[in-house]
Each structure stands twice: as C-alpha cells, then as structure tokens.
Structure prediction request, 157 residues.
Amino acid sequence: MTDAAVQTLVRIDAETPADAASVEALVMAAFGPGRYAKTAERIREQAGVAAGFVARENGRVVGAVRLWSITVGERPALFLGPITVSADSRKGGLGGDLVQACIDHAGTTGILLVGDEPYFSRFGFRHAPEARLQGPVDQRRVLWLGADEPAGTVRAA
Ligand SMILES: CC(C)(COP(=O)(O)OP(=O)(O)OC[C@H]1O[C@@H](n2cnc3c(N)ncnc32)[C@H](O)[C@@H]1OP(=O)(O)O)[C@@H](O)C(=O)NCCC(=O)NCCS
Prediction:
C-alpha cells in the first residue's frame, strides 16, 4: 500500500442538514441525556444556530461544534457548544480545529461558552464572572473570548 493510500483525510466543513443525525449521535455519546438538564441547553433551545462545523475523517463525521446567537446584556455575541470529538479521534487536534473555525467565523464578535478553562484557555478564553446565565451554572466555567469583559444577563437572540 502506498503512503497516500493509508493517509487519513480529515477536514473541517460547515455543518449541513444532512449531518444533523451524525452530530446528534456524537453529542449523545459524549454527554448522554444529562445534557438536556443543563442551563446551556435552555439557551440552545431558544437561540438560532449561527453556524455549525463538523470534522470529517474519510467522509465520516467525527467531530462537531455549533455557535448560537445570544446577547450578553445589550451586546450581541455567540454561544459555543456543544463541542465534541469522537473518542477514537481525540488528541489529534480536531477539537482545536473546530474551536478555531468558530473563532474565525466570529470575527470581532465575542464568544461565550460553559466549559473547562484548562482546555479553552489555550485559545484565549477567560473567565466571565459578570455574564449571568439564567439558571444554575458553575460560574467558573463561564468563559469569554472577545474584546472587553461582558456583563449582563445571557439571552437567546
Ligand atoms: C474536548 C474535546 C472536544 C477535545 O477534542 P480533541 O480533538 O481531543 O482536542 P485537541 O486534539 O485539540 O486537544 C487535545 C488536548 O486537550 C486536552 N483536553 C481535552 N479535554 C480537556 C479538558 N476538558 N480539560 C483540559 N484539557 C483537555 C487533551 O488532554 C489533549 O491534551 P494534549 O494535547 O496535552 O494531549 C474532546 O476531548 C471531547 O469531545 N470531549 C468530550 C466532550 C466534552 O467534554 N466537550 C466539552 C469540553 S469542555
């Protein structure tokens, strides 16, 4: 077999409607039904999807992330999540590529998320103690990437 034949083809694409079932399966495998209890999920139920990206490995969806339209106080922003990479494709940089696709899409618009600071700090995300989600959340997991620290209630837009 040639080197080219064994190479894995991976790329980041915009999510299409045909990807929805694969994305749902990935998210369910990573987070289980408990995700529906999360305050972040309440935002996603009400917000419009601003963008979605998938990682494809030889055509198969192995990673996904979505961005949702929100406001923090009066400021328009994007809410990132869920992000997931299938267990057998992790630690190869796909998660980072998906986050970067979101950052590129956002441009000068700020991004808020609820997640692990040890993972997201590498992309520049910082704590956002004044961004208030409407429900129980560990405030230390509320992170922001953008100009100026956001303040105010987080709402679907
Ligand atoms: C988080 C996730 C998307 C990262 O995907 P990935 O393709 O492995 O990401 P990358 O290859 O870009 O980065 C991997 C690195 O991040 C680290 N990492 C992964 N999750 C982490 C976390 N929650 N906190 C801190 N570091 C983390 C890995 O240990 C690895 O470290 P290394 O580079 O020193 O080996 C993936 O682990 C996943 O789907 N996890 C389950 C779902 C989840 O928890 N999502 C939300 C995270 S807050």
Notes: The CA atoms of residues 125 and 145 lie 5 Å apart.
